[in-house]
Design goal:
With about 170 residues, this protein is an all-alpha fold. It has helices at about 1-10, 15-30, 40-70, 95-105, 110-120, 125-135, 140-160, 170. The termini are far apart. About 20% of the residues are buried.
């Protein structure tokens, strides 16, 4: 469960493995303090999502510093070149390009919208459970999910119109 959540958020096997390990270290360290106010599964989900979000923030910082190093000539190679590789073992090889394109668009959504969309559409969680994991009201989850779907749909339409090899006739049909 933890690995799948991490993989769905990060789309890279090695990073998902690293976050999975971090989650279990954190769970082990905080288990004595677990009060039981929520389901243990929800608690572990919350820790996992938070670890993924922290990891994504660190990835963005690393990308920015990599850009600065390249720009100022301190480093000849790009340390973030492999960050955009898509490696998800649950996706068939022939589907990887389409799924990668979809997750690339999902990654452009605001953080909460992205997390809610992944938890709902990919992990199949109910809105009440998502609300508990993200410590939001069910109404907030409904609203954010609706906005995420609308934003994703718009991004897909925008992306479809600019896809290489797409003629204006193909776009209008």
């Amino acid at each position: 469960m933890v690995f799948n959540i991490a993989l769905n958020h990060l789309q890279q096997r090695e990073e998902a493995e690293e976050v999975t390990q971090d989650v279990f270290v954190k769970v082990h360290g905080k288990l004595a303090g677990f009060s039981g106010r929520s389901n243990i599964r929800t608690w572990i989900y919350r820790i996992t999502v938070n670890q993924c979000l922290d990891h994504l923030k660190a990835r963005k910082r690393k990308k920015r510093s990599g850009f600065h190093l390249r720009f100022f000539g301190d480093d000849e190679r790009d340390p973030t070149a492999t960050l955009s590789d898509y490696d998800h073992p649950g996706v068939m090889l022939e589907d990887r390009e389409a799924v990668h394109a979809l997750f690339t668009l999902i990654d452009t959504l605001p953080t909460r919208q992205r997390s809610i969309l992944i938890l709902k559409a990919v992990d199949g969680l109910e809105q009440q459970e998502i609300a508990a994991i993200l410590e939001l009201s069910v109404k907030s989850v409904e609203s954010l999910l609706s906005r995420a779907k609308a934003n994703l749909k718009q991004k897909m339409m925008d992306n479809e119109g600019t896809a290489p090899g797409t003629s204006s006739k193909q776009r209008s049909s």
